[in-house]
Amino acid sequence: MKFLVLISASALLIADLFAQDPGMEPIGSLGVELFYATNDDVKLAGDQAQEVAKDQVKALKAIKELSFSHYRRLGGDRPTILRGYESWATPLKPSKEILVSFQPIKREGPGKMQMVLEYWQSKRKVFSTNPFLTKGKSLYLLGPEWRKGRLILAVKILNLKD
Fold it and tell me: How far apart are CA 158 and CA 33, in angstroms?
């Protein structure tokens, strides 16, 4: 009898270990890009900085607070959005100097979601915001001053399960 109880209890524990956590379900992916913007010498961005596409430069300059003479792309990441957990993006791979944490809050119809976005630099949270993001549309966030310019974070939902 004790043996049957032990086997039953073991089977229940094993079933619990292998149960799926619905919060771990991937529901989409996020595009996170980091840009350097300056009115001074663009070489201050470093050797790894890349040219920015003309259409993206036009979009950045269309926003008064983001209008600079020069832009360079420093890096990007394409992390998975999990249904109920915080996830992280590392736009300056392999460096962990600049990180972006994000977590879904609620859905607002097809292709729209509110998220908690936090920008971390040198293991310190620089800012936090709860924007509504629309699939395929970039949200530009003005970051801190850096090397006689500013960092700009671009976040957009690349795909999202309906």
Answer: 12
pLDDT top residue among 26 and 101:
101
Give the Å distances, CA to CA, from 132 to 15, 66, 85, 112, 113: 38, 20, 17, 7, 5
> Is the C-alpha dihedral spanning 106, 108, 112, 117 positive or negative?
negative
Q: Where are the alpha helices (DSSP H) in the chain?
A: 2-17, 54-61
| Annotated domain spans of the chain | 22-160
Per-chain mean pLDDT for the chain: 83
Write the DSSP string, 37-73.
EESS-GGGG-TT-B---HHHHHHHHTSGGG--SEEEE
CA dihedral of residues 94, 100, 44, 41 (deg, nearest 10): 150
For tokens 């671009």, name the residue: 154
